[in-house]
Amino acid sequence: MGRRLLIGLLALFASACRGDRPGHASDAALQAVVDSLVPQVEKASGMTFAKPPRFAVRTKAQVSAYLKTKLDQEFPAQKVEGVEAAYRLLDLLPDTLDVRSVLLGLYAEQVAGFYDPDSVTLYAVEGAEGNQLRLVLAHELVHALQDEHLPLAKMLKDVTNADRLAASQAVLEGDATIAMLRVIMPDPSALRDPNFWQLYRDQIKTAQSSMPVFKRAPLILREGLIFPYLAGAEFMRWWEGQGKGPLPTPEELPRSSEQILHPDRYAAGDEPVPVAFTDSSGSVLYEDTMGELELQVWGTAMRGGGEVVSTLANGWGGDRFRVYRTPDGPAPVLYTVWDDSTAARRFASGPAQRFLDRPRAGYRTTVDTLTLDGHPGVRVVRAPDAWARWRDLPTAR
Q: At 29, phi and psi to the nearest 5?
């Protein structure tokens, strides 16, 4: 849900790793830092620059205005309406939450520097702490390198499948995170120690408590923002361990959050099952794919919260949801397919049943097990009581 605004906008890793608070650097000093980082980043990433990116410093006010403009472009009013309707009615967002305002607050709270592929420019935020900014600049220089080796602009503007977009983002952020750590750590060999990554995860979670907006954000937003950095780094560690190149080619990119969370599913060629609605899209407000990650978050929310446990594959095969406009309010319809009937029953009797047990005034909720072209499936519908389509529910294949 609105996962991509700019490359590497968050500075969660910097907040987790920074130590002392040095003074703020001048523009000239920052340029010198960038120049000194270029060869280190090239070595750490295994890629070389054909042409280093432009570098610029912006005030917090300029960055805030820029982020607002980008958010307006990539999160237009109709998309905001659809996202809010879908995730509110799935009980993943409070009814009163303004998603756009929260996203803008999250970005403004956490940004210290970023790479913008549209302008091929690396930006630093004026007043950022020296150590923090060095971390961020190293991370963002990797994104600039990625932009020379992958069609980032095309990848990040594909908004037809949020789960596939999240998988691509995880590759980019995971790769940049690993390279950044190689640059700043006295002994990069520590990155091969599983204990280091557990410590790193703990530091990230501890850092959350110092970010007021992030701490108050709903679970679905928090998990979606952290996922590319943590799960992405784990996937890219696995990728390197297979003796593969610095980055997957466009053809090799993972196609789902399931493949990021469980690299063995990627290795086995477990591709997402495409699910498509077969009825008219005339009354559709919004349509997208949730993927394993968001369905894991949904399951956690239906249990009443806590830590999202995504280490065990849940048998996700594919999904697609639509939000329909109706005279009495929006109506989300979610189709999911699963690897086997056991996984489908587990979903239907777990998260879906708990959702069914959470009534909403003026709405009817149904959960049905079914088969879609030979795949075990589960359909979840929440729509106004008076919705005419209850007599002829939307179908999918």
A: -65, -35
